Amino acid sequence: MPLSPLPRTADSTTRGEIVSKLSKHDIFDIVVVGGGIHGAAVARLASSLGFSVALIEKADYAAATSSRSSKMAHGGLRYLELLDFEQVFEGIKAREEMFEHVGHLVRPAEFLIPVPRGHLFFRVKLSIGLFLYDLLVRNRQRRHRWISRSKLTFPGFHKGRSDLMGCFVYTDGLMSDTRLVIENVLAARRAGAVCVNYCEASGVRREGDGILHVAARDLITRQDFTIRARLVVNCAGPWASHLAKEFQGETRPLTLSRGSHIIFSKPWAGPSLFLPIPGRARYYWIWPHPAGTMVGTTEREITDAELDPLPSRDEVEEILGRLARDVPDAGLSRENACYCFAGIRSLPRRGKNANSTVLSRKHIWTEEHGVLTLFGGKYTTASWTALEGVRAAARVLGKPFGVKQLSQRPDLLQLPGSFAAGEQGELARSLELHGLDPEDINRLISRYGKRLGKHYLAYAEGSREKIIALETMIALDTEQVETLEDLMRRRLELEYTEDHGVRFLPIIEAVFKQLRPEMDFAAQKTAYLERMGTIEALLRG
């Protein structure tokens, strides 16, 4: 079935065009290695401030930690127990900025914290923590409140729960972590950055003139080339120390921690839950997800970082056991578990204690021999962390800038899909006139924001299959999709759903055959279905 081609826009690109720019550019100010949220944010900020920037990522954008987060934009309420006030306040301020400037990707959500009967100290401790949490909340309606047991009406938490004293309700944020990375990359490209995925940096050579020659390989075409730059910014996440060592930069010891989540096909109707784990200074969460309900996270210290980790069998059982104990009537069970994933978090060690439960989440930037390296970093504060890195890079390059210059650039807080006042409602009404139902309208707006209205509104119509076809064309034309996995997991996010998007594979295949006829779709489809089978087997025990 032939499909109407989309109009070519400023975001349209091909891999050949990008790699050609990368290999032929004379000297970049900065080459960023690592296409997760921090690398993408550094590339966006640096290029927007006038630096010439290249961004290379050895897999797909957000392929590792940045697509495997808990998908929360939060201050980190549990960090208050570690007395990490600076990290919490930075997180809250960054979260509030995200609500205001990237509201299509980050939205406020209520969280419920149950307090067991007889645990007065726990209630007082939480009350103090939530008071501190509220100090920087801009909207008074989002401040916390206490609900006594007699007034509880939430599913699973009602006045019949004699084991509870009551519940606190507070606000944090839910986000699309992968879409935030993609929009940062798009913004970087719009500002002039040359960004390419599936491109690996294998080493660096320093010349007498101070220029760094970064050896790179295009993993799709197997082409080798050299990128010349004045500074390397290492944002390789769990692999940052390894890369710093390869590039002769400063290394730091990291504690690696794997966190796992399960997604259930059953929708979550009530507020999100923030639940303490008895006997540990840790918590886990239950919250709504576009595919149903998400539950997590576990915490396992590991020694090596995998690019594509899966939860261990005991982590799956741990999460299912918690649910059976804490919310037995929630309807979340092995039978409706449809997906699971794991992510690796890296925490820089300070002092002798390397335990991940007490280590500060505060990041560290270091610079040595022209290599600026980020160790650690929290997703919510990624834009602030990136700003610190760009300011450090500017000092090294002899082009420092100040706070006054930044205050004159409110656009630095926005992304390509960010709405101005009134634009979201106008777009929703236009989509309704095109015959889309509320679920499809919400899907498109929450993924593309105003990008949709500017270029693709006329193509947004008809069935869900046609909408998925449109999204596939957008991804192939503007979002540098190279594999079926890129599309299903990190662009369309269909992999998380109950059938993993299998019912849409015929229309997706038609788009690929029209726009990427050189790709062996059959082989990629087989690999995709095998991987989904592995995940289902893990969930079924």
Compact description:
The chain is of the alpha+beta class. The chain is 35% helix and 23% strand. Strands 3, 4, 5, 8, 13, 14, 15, 16, 17 and 18 form a 10-stranded mixed beta sheet that branches.
Question: How would you describe the overall organization of this protein?
Answer:
This protein has 541 residues and is an alpha+beta fold. It folds into 4 domains: 183 residues, FAD/NAD(P)-binding domain (3-Layer(bba) Sandwich); 88 residues, no CATH class; 95 residues, 2-Layer Sandwich (D-Amino Acid Oxidase, Chain A, domain 2), CATH 3.30.9; 118 residues, no CATH class. It is 35% helix and 23% strand. It has 16 helices and 20 strands. The strands form 3 sheets. Strands 3, 4, 5, 8, 13, 14, 15, 16, 17 and 18 form a 10-stranded mixed sheet that branches. Helix 2 crosses helix 8, helix 10 crosses helix 11 and helix 13 runs parallel beside helix 15. The mean pLDDT is 91.
Helix and strand arrangement:
Layout: H1 15-24, E1 28-33, H2 37-48, E2 53-56, E3 72-73, H3 85-101, E4 106-116, H4 120-134, E5 145-148, E6 153-154, E7 157-158, E8 164-175, H5 177-190, E9 194-196, E10 199-206, E11 212-218, E12 223-234, H6 240-246, E13 254-264, E14 272-276, E15 283-289, E16 292-296, E17 300-302, H7 313-326, E18 337-348, E19 364-368, E20 371-375, H8 382-396, H9 403-407, H10 423-433, H11 438-448, H12 450-456, H13 464-478, H14 484-491, H15 505-515, H16 521-540
Parallel strand pairs: 1-2, 1-12, 2-9, 4-14, 12-20
Antiparallel strand pairs: 3-8, 4-8, 5-8, 6-7, 10-11, 11-12, 13-16, 13-17, 13-18, 14-15, 15-16, 19-20
Helix pairs in contact: 2-5, 2-8, 10-11, 13-15
